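Risk mitigation, structural track. In case the binding assays with heme C fail to produce interpretable data, a predicted complex structure has been prepared as a fallback.
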Amino acid sequence: MLSGTNEITQERAAKAMASFLRTMISADSKFDRERIGEYTFTPLEDAGFNLFITEGGMNANTGQPWGGADCFHCHGHGGMQMGDYLMHNNGLDQHFFNDPGLAAITGNPLDSGRFKTPSLRNIELTAPYMHDGRFTDLHGVFLHYNSGGVVSTTIDPFMEGAGGGLFLDDLDELALIAFLKTLTDTSFVNNPAFSDPFN
Ligand code: HEC
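Fallback model:
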């Protein structure tokens, strides 16, 4: 129970919403169950997972592609959150007329095109993608990253395919998307506690 008065203030409303949001924990996807040994990835999902956690772009030492999709640097799986929540420029645009990203807040040109890296949990269900919804499906997202993204002065060093691409093929795309779909947590998205209270 709240102590004190019944007064509704901005701060109390924010705290109430924050408390509710903190109850929204998605941890029962195929990916989560695989991590604790309760699910085995299909060969395709497994191939996608390996792409996700492998370096991408050209290996300067060998002159050969690394062969991975290089997603883990920013959507790292280590913390299981599938996003580092840090500000990165993932190569969407060269000029940032419509939305300069973090630079709109800081006024620092070095922040142009930098956006917060979101979690990829339940990503299958949340199209369209990116801050402006420019990609209608995961195929569009794949094409973007496989191209290496748009090179600009602030593109993130973790965009390892910048300038050359990731060199992934159609089968790699199938695998990567199959893996991304293992992040769908049906018990989370069907939990009545998170449904529309007025329906
Ligand atoms: C340099 C860091 C970085 C790398 C590497 C990276 N991403 Fe992202 N990703 C981001 C950022 C930042 C955003 C948010 C961009 C925005 O809001 O416009 C994002 C957004 C996304 C989105 C859309 C999320 C949404 O809810 O709209 C998907 C899907 C995605 N990334 C998948 C991937 C995949 C798959 C890979 C590997 C092929 C990858 N990312 C590699 C930083 C990165």
